[in-house]
Amino acid sequence: MVILVPYLWLLVFFLIPFAIVFKISLSQSAISMPPYAPTFDVSAGFSGLLDNLRELSFDNYLWLLDDALYFNAYLSSVWIAAVSTFFALLIGYPMAYAMARAPSSLRMVLLMLVILPFWTSFLIRVYAWIGILKPEGLLNQFLIWVGIIDTPLQIMNTHTAIYIGIVYSYLPFMVLPLYASLEKMDFSLIEAAQDLGCPPISAFWKITFPLSLPGALAGCLLVFIPAVGEFVIPDLLGGSQTLMIGKTLWNEFFANRDWPVASAVAIVLLLILVVPMMFFQRAQARAQEQER
After folding, report:
1. Closest to 243 measured CA to CA, from 179, 150, 162
2. Neighbouring-strand partners of residue 37
3. How much is the pLDDT for 291?
């Protein structure tokens, strides 16, 4: 029964929705409700079900291969997510390290400060960055007041604004796994290395970073996966010219009302994210078996 519960959860909330979306991706667009055909009719019996199955095809996936828009959207999404994940790791690692080395009495306070943004609506937090990054926003006003710039910087509706929004929004997902790994580390190992003449930087790369690597990999996955399919941040901060697969998917569903093509886009996106994770987990499992 204990094992059955997660499998039921996976069946209801992943496999069944995946099967529905996959079936729609093999259908054809139609002016109807729902806007695709064929729709399975149980009353038609087994022969009617076979007729409906014969109407399914992979034409929508071939359409994705023919149109460069979708390939560019996937490529742009992966690139933006990878760059954002890199900056999140660059910023989150020192934060997690400082939290792990802080006195025990301060760690819970620091942990609460990291989690605190989740108490506010995600949409409101993204809207707040519009007021900060727009030409007449707080950031440009501050830089002009300090004298660093003379004219406002154009940050809104650029990839820079998207990077800032994604890093800010998903930074806690990077900090928390890193903190969990670093907090368990025995820092006496660093002291022993330094007593043996190892410089602090070498001690970090030879001891601290390898021991924190599982937390870093978990944080990178937690940031990268949702960032690839992000829709709100590119739509609000990136402007209409931003090409990401989340916006493309939304346009296909709600603007073009082409559910079969949108479902095919979603299936391909899921495969792009899931297949590398499966190979990564297999490689980790083999590495652990070899170590044993």
Report:
1. 162
2. 28
3. 67
Q: Is 147 left (phi over 0), alpha (psi -120 to 50) or beta?
A: left
Regarding beta strands 36-37 and 28-29, do their DSSP bridges make them parallel or antiparallel, or are they unpaired? antiparallel
DSSP 208: I
**In 3D, which of 217, 195, 193 has the Cα closest to residue 205?**
193
Contact partners, residue 230, CB within 8 Å, separation at least 6: 77, 81, 166, 244, 246
Predicted TM-score of the model (pTM): 0.87
Q: Give the count of beta carbons closer than 10 Å to the beta carbon of residue 49.
A: 14
Reported as half-sphere exposure (CB side, CA atoms, 13 A), residue 126 has a value of: 20
- The CA distance from 154 to 137, in Å, is 11
pLDDT digits (tens, 9 = 90+) for 178-200: 999 999 888 888 888 888 888 88
Give the count of alpha carbons within 13 A of 129, CB side only: 25
Neighbour count for residue 134 (Cβ, 10 Å): 18
> CB neighbours (10 Å) of residue 91?
15
What stretches in the chain show pLDDT beneath 70? 42, 44, 291-292
> Rounded CA gap, 262 and 143, in Å?
43
Whole-Å CA distances, 60 to 22, 78, 150, 198: 11, 22, 51, 59
Backbone angles phi and psi of 275, in degrees to 5: -60, -50
Distance between first and last Cα of the chain = 30
Can you list the alpha helix ranges (DSSP code H) found in the chain? 4-10, 16-25, 45-55, 59-66, 68-101, 104-115, 122-133, 138-146, 159-183, 188-195, 200-203, 209-228, 232-233, 245-250, 259-291
Q: Residue 224, Cβ neighbours under 10 Å: how many?
A: 22
Distance CA 98, CA 168 (A): 18
Distance of CA 250 to the CA centre of its chain: 16
| Longest alpha-carbon distance in the chain | 80
